[in-house]
Write a structure and sequence with these properties.
2 helices, 0% strand, Thioredoxin-like_sf, Thioredoxin family protein, mainly alpha
Length: 61
């Protein structure tokens, strides 16, 4: 009986630690996205920060 109670206590403790860890923000959330309209400027910025580039093409044919 003691082993079963210990298992429940350990499980509850693990879930509590996991829940508290998930609630804490790891990084501040940015206020918004800053879009670059110049391909050259976006390429320089992406290379400097080691990030990919998203090219969004749209037409209304």
């Amino acid at each position: 009986m003691s082993t079963r109670v210990g298992g429940w206590v350990a499980g509850a403790l693990a879930v509590s630690v996991f829940a508290v860890g998930c609630m804490q923000a790891k990084k501040p959330v940015p206020a918004g996205i800053e879009w670059n309209q110049s391909f050259t400027a976006a390429l320089v910025d992406a290379q400097a920060h080691h990030r990919p580039i998203l090219l969004d093409f749209y037409t209304d044919w």
